[in-house]
Amino acid sequence: MKIGKIFFFKLLIFLLFVQISFYPQTESLQKKIEQIAKTVKGNVGVAIIGVGNNDTITFNGNEKFPMQSVYKFPLALAVLNSVDKGRLSLDQKIFIAKKDLLPATWSPLREKYPDGNVSVTLDELLKVTVAWSDNNGCDILFRLVGGTNIVNDFIHEKGVTNIEITATEEEMHKDAQVQFSNWSTPSAMAVLLCSFFHGNILSKKSTNYLMEIMAKTSTGTKRIKGLLPEGIRVAHKTGSSGRNEQGVIEALNDSGIVTLPNGDHFVIVAFISNTKEEEAVCESVIAQIAKVVWDQNISQDE
């Protein structure tokens, strides 16, 4: 086992038992995050890790939250691991039948190829699934690697066990309760992102490739990126449940890696669930949390 993998396993164990580590001016930043989080009537979970120093702050970091499309990030990790192992290649063609393009689900892929029966590269499929959060593309990728259990096992093998991936997008759409079987704690997702960034999961080439895709994410622009300076690089993956018949948003999430002006980075995971607040209010809370972490880092460099 590489030193990096041992370190991240220890970091994960650490995060399972503590809520706060020694982030610079931790107490002040922790209070700010708590104050912002408590403005939402619902469940909020946050995890922050300074990538360079591994200083950490969490709020409800060990609670389970439905991931929704955030789980397309660990799916992409499993797919690219197969690329690294030579089992798949980015330029190989994947045949998509019309029956694969399910209606009544978010799918730019279906909009582009409404009649299906077309072959697209794995590169295109990954980009539309991660950057555009395509639900049909997601399930095609699950089938390509052998199912949700293969992805789940792969993530657990990397030492991150507080994530469960059991159901496809199609299964979640058939029964809204199924979404709760795809869960993560904020701390676990933050550790996974940090480990990914440090190259402990994929090759350098695949790590850079996925970072580029995540930096082009088109969804959730008012979440982590909402109050940050324009042009700042944020490699992230969002997740959204929409509002159910009872008017409840069961998941409104964002998770990613923010690049600071000095070249340092921080990981931020913000999950919101079980709320009747307006979507704009939830997105604003995530944006405010990202902004106070950003401001804290910027002030230290001045």
Query: Tell me about the biggest sheet?
Result: 5 strands, antiparallel
Order of helices and strands: HHEEEHEHEHHHEHEHHEEEH
- Please state the structural category: alpha+beta
What is the global morphology? Answer: globular
SS element count, helices: 11
Radius of gyration: 18 Å
CATH fold call = Beta-lactamase
- The fourth-level CATH homologous superfamily is DD-peptidase/beta-lactamase superfamily
β-strand number: 10
Q: What is the straight-line distance between the termini?
A: 39 Å
Uncertain segments are 13-24
- Beta-strand portion reads 15-25%
Percent helix: 40-55%
| Tally of structural domains | 1
CATH architectural arrangement: 3-Layer(aba) Sandwich
Tell me what the structure shows.
With 302 residues, this protein is of the alpha+beta class. It contains eleven helices and ten strands. The strands form three sheets. Strands 2-1-10-9-8 form a five-stranded antiparallel beta sheet, with helices on both faces. It has a three-stranded antiparallel beta sheet with strand order 3-7-6. A two-stranded antiparallel sheet has the order 4-5. Residues 13-24 have low confidence and may be disordered.
